[in-house]
């Protein structure tokens, strides 16, 4: 999955969870910029990401998932390496 | 040993610092050893016999963490080992902190007959137990980079955070402890640390400790507290705990900085919060972080994952349903806050405090889930000051339970606050009343006014003015981190606060003079009565 594909898939998830069809995500977006991104949404986000990307996250990693860059890094590290 | 005591300020601290900087000439290892040594002296000063418990706890937990790491290939054995280790820690905590209360409760219920036990509480046991449990859990999750027993001992025993936190995470501490530059003299760190420490000392001795009399007047006699006494007591207590804890956090952060170590932020003007959710992001931040990491997130994740795997919805729509809301929001929140409450003390009133905040948070989340987005994006009548007001009112209610000696006493004081024990008249000096002629008779008769001496009036008015001034400081002024923002006072980003142009600390003459004056006052005020709320933790 390319960086762009990952970002767009993540944007889809964010739009669903925060119920904001116009939400735009950039790698610079952080939790402070989206008011509804609190501890509750963090959990929903984590589970949605697990479901849609087919990966497993650890409870301890949720503390570091406070920005889009963090999320993308985390997801990429969990995805199976692409076959060559 | 308390930070606000002569023996600490004029004995321990100078020796510790001087020794530290002498030892830095002999290398990081020796300096770190010195820190461990003085930390154990600090801990043992109050009650030497608890040093044994402290040492045993550290050795046990380190051994357990090593064992857990070795079992990496066998997850179930690893989990079992972790649970046993946690149980041992929690067991010790229950024994020292809660057993007395439990036995008393059972005796009261008639289930147990026996001698009354009295168990002394080891200093800081809640803090060093929690810190080490966190380390064990992280070890099992493979999130800890191994640094050896020596640095583990320093991590747990480092004296600034020993009595009252902040609750440190190994990820933020270990890298600092192994860096050689931590063990070199830095004039800047010493100056910055001293300034932060000074702010904390002033908050504790000049602000918090002056609230004691009003607090005791109300909370000590809840059954007879009038409307005035009750409200003054509660408002004073809100100030006392605020400045007590933020002062102590500042002192801890400042002390660590004197030794070149940066602590995380623990207190961020919590009464400025516009919601209870925000309150807990600003009050005792490291405890909130700890509970979120090890209690709330695992619980909420488990529930939410469970729903997802059974193909139940988990988004905002699902959270708006009774079942979804109860399982995904209320359950993890109430359990977490019950623990938060009980962690503060062995008593039903602490549990109630926690549960009250659990209810607040659940309501807060419900509002966020259900609130329709306004078309104009505005706030309507729910402006920022209004939100802050409601949040503060909610906080006050919780604090009544937190401070009261029992649930019954709390309810009595609440009764006083709504006027069930009557109202005191406003105090006016007899000299003023004498000039009011006929009005004087009706005022006195109605009880709206009570005569006092001139001195009595000045005392009362002065006391009230002081409380108002402190609230102005709480709500309108920058906090210690904001004042120090140019020097990275804590881990994480700090931004400038209000009046940043005038109130940003710099190492110049004006600030030195101000700091000197403040420290003098702060030290002189030590002689007065003092109470350290977090000592019982």
General description of the model:
The complex is a heterodimer of chains A (84) and B (537). With 84 residues, chain A is mainly α. Chain A has three helices and no strands. Helix content of chain A is 49%, strand content 0%. Chain A is globular. The two termini of chain A are 13 Å apart. Chain B has 537 residues and is mostly helical. Chain B has helices at 6-23, 28-46, 50-70, 75-108, 125-140, 149-157, 170-178, 187-207, 212-219, 227-258, 276-282, 285-309, 316-319, 322-344, 348-370, 384-403, 407-417, 430-434, 438-446, 454-476, 480-483, 509-524; strands spanning 426-429, 449-452. In chain B, 40% of the residues are buried. Classes of the chains: A mainly alpha (84), B mainly alpha (537). At the A-B interface, helix 2 of A face helix 12 of B.
Task: Provide the succession of SSEs of chain A.
Answer: HHH
Give the class of chain B from helix and strand content and strand pairing.
mainly alpha
Number of helices of chain B: 22
Shape of chain A: globular
Largest sheet of chain A, in brief, is:
none
Give me some keywords for this one.
heterodimer; A: mainly alpha; Non-ribosomal Peptide Synthetase Peptidyl Carrier Protein, Chain A; globular; B: 537 residues; mainly alpha; two-stranded parallel ribbon; 22 helices; 2 strands; 66% helix
Outline of this structure?
With about 80 residues, chain A is mainly alpha-helical.
Protein topology:
The complex is a heterodimer of chains A (84) and B (537).
Chain A (H helix, E strand, L loop, with lengths): L2 H15 L21 H15 L14 H11 L6
Chain B lengths: L5 H18 L4 H19 L3 H21 L4 H34 L16 H16 L8 H9 L12 H9 L8 H21 L4 H8 L7 H32 L17 H7 L2 H25 L6 H4 L2 H23 L3 H23 L13 H20 L3 H11 L8 E4 H5 L3 H9 L2 E4 L1 H23 L3 H4 L25 H16 L13
Parallel strand pairs in B: 1-2
